[in-house]
Design goal:
Number of strands: 5
Strand content: 25-35%
Radius of gyration: 15 Å
Structural class: alpha+beta
Strand order of the largest sheet: 1-5-4-3-2
Oligomer: single chain
Length: 135
């Protein structure tokens, strides 16, 4: 069965994120990110090297968990959680990636601190099925 372009792009982005953020395999990650990668995130230096250097600067405890993933044409959006990166709270992010010819070429994100159960007015977690426990 042939997978659609959207299915292939979603799988590619999830594999790329796991390779970089969780496995921290920078050589392998170069296969996923274009050398001409355009970075729109306000907290990351330009290009692929800016992203890789940011990840290299974070603690080895960094963990990325992917949640809902949607694709439309060349664009993939992943709703995920970043934890263990040295901040007092986790980040919940919607990462928007443009894929071209099987490689990540452009990125935008929307990030917010993950709320605890006490902070949540809705009473439901921002990510997954349980609230984070912070000390």
């Amino acid at each position: 069965m042939n997978r659609t372009k959207q299915e292939k792009n979603k799988a590619l982005v999830l594999e790329a994120f796991d390779t970089l953020f969780n496995k921290r395999d920078y050589a392998a990650a170069e296969r996923y990110w274009s050398p001409h990668y355009i970075q729109h995130s306000a907290h990351i230096e330009p290009g692929r090297e800016g992203l890789f250097n940011l990840i290299k600067s974070l603690p080895a405890t960094l963990k990325y968990e992917a949640g809902t993933t949607v694709a439309d044409g060349d664009f993939v959006i992943v709703h995920g959680r970043f934890s263990g990166f040295g901040a007092p709270v986790n980040w919940i992010a919607a990462d928007i990636v443009r894929v071209q010819n099987g490689i990540l070429v452009e990125h935008w994100d929307v990030i917010q601190d993950e709320a605890t159960e006490e902070q949540s007015k809705s009473g439901v977690p921002m990510f997954g099925k349980t609230f984070p426990k912070y000390e």
